[in-house]
Amino acid sequence: MTGVNEAMERIKNSKTGPWGRSIELEGDFSDLYSNCNQNLLTECVKKACRYANLHESTFQYIKLLIDSIMTHSYFKEPTGIFKTLKGFSMGDCSAARGSEIILRMYEMKMFSNLARKNLLKNVLRFLRFRDDVSVHITGSDLELFQVMQIIGSGYPPCIIFNIESKITHGKFLNIRIYNNPETREPYTTVLRKAQNKYNIIPPKSNTHPKFKRMAGLGYFRTVRTHCSTQKEIQNQFKVVYAILKCKGFNKQQIKRMEKFKTGKIKDIKRFLSKTTYDSTSRRHEYTLRTFKGCDIDPQKYYQPMVVSRKKLEQIIFTARQMRKKLNF
User: Fold this and answer.
1) pLDDT class of 89 with cuts at 50, 70, 90
2) Average pLDDT value for the chain
């Protein structure tokens, strides 16, 4: 899973089982990053390299990187800098990728077990983003029990997987999913937590107006993307109106947020740069002067900068490519 947008697309394209013969499962992992140890990650990476037909030398190189990452992980606290002794540090750039490899390798084994027992047909939806899991299963009592047993015990023993079964509805990220008995289509709406205080910028703040409306625009956008029916969208709009009204926004301000539409952002091509190559050769000045004076159409021949700090290098590359037209 890449995020909420993909989750909504996959939920809309899925079906729910017959009422009374289907279960919505929601689960999460306790201390996922802390419980991903080095030996487990190395084992899973070795399996992944075998599936990808990578050479043994490639795995040995990756193993050295894993050793370096897992033994040199630190985090900063107000009282000082501390070393991580178990698993990944929260916020470490390698934490999400390392844990993803581990969970995916075990999920491949999990689905192999389901296929071996002819139970894949009973899993109508399986979603996971980081440590959040949502599953919808259907079938007889025995089939439901077998699927729940395989999924519940399918992850590494050192990573505690908490799973809870629901009959009518479940949740995933900030989406509430209902098991609709009439249409067999999943019914979704916005999940709002009771402890959410909705701390947003008040309208009387001296902050720029565009920042004051950001929260409201986000609330309305979330309603449009997360609700599966027009009736539920209208119901959630009323909730958003009530939230913003309690925060001090008047009816006209809220109405403008609801009707606001973002236009398409047009990419502006930047063809020239002020980046200095070096102060001795002054080659950058010559290149820019030549580029400005040449009779070529930048829109046709020049590829704009997409990598930071590479503007001049791309200009020089363009000049070399067009040396015939530049009479070099």
Assistant:
1) confident
2) 83
Query: In angstroms, how far is the first alpha carbon of the chain from the final one?
Result: 51
- Residue-wise pLDDT for 291-328, tens only, equals 677 766 665 555 544 444 455 555 555 555 555 555 54
Distance of CA 3 to the CA centre of its chain: 4
Q: What is the mean pLDDT of residues 156-182?
A: 88
Residue 276 has pLDDT above 80, yes or no: no
* Window from 48-62, 67-81, 235-249, 270-284 with minimum mean pLDDT: 270-284
Which residue ranges make up each domain of the chain?
201-259, 267-328
Residue 116 burial class via C-beta count within 10 angstroms: exposed 0-12, middle 13-18, buried 19 and up:
exposed
What is the Cα–Cα distance from 99 to 90, expressed in whole angstroms?
Answer: 12
pTM of the model: 0.72
Alpha-carbon Rg for the chain in angstroms: 27
3-state SS of the chain is CCCHHHHHHHHHCCCCCCCCCEEEEEEEEECHHHHCCHHHHHHHHHHHHHHCCCCHHHHHHHHHHHHHHHHCCEEEECCEEEECCCCCCCCCHHHHHHHHHHHHHHHHHHHHHHHHCCCHHHEEEEEEECCEEEEEEECCHHHHHHHHHHHHCCCCCCCEEEEEEECCEEEECCEEEECCCCCCCCEEEECCCCCCCCCCCCCCCCCCHHHHCHHHHHHHHHHHHHCCCHHHHHHHHHHHHHHHHHCCCCHHHHHHHHHCCCCCCCCCCCCCCCCCCCCCCCHHHHHHHHHHHCCCCHHHHCCCCCCCCCHHHHHHHHHHHCCCCCCC
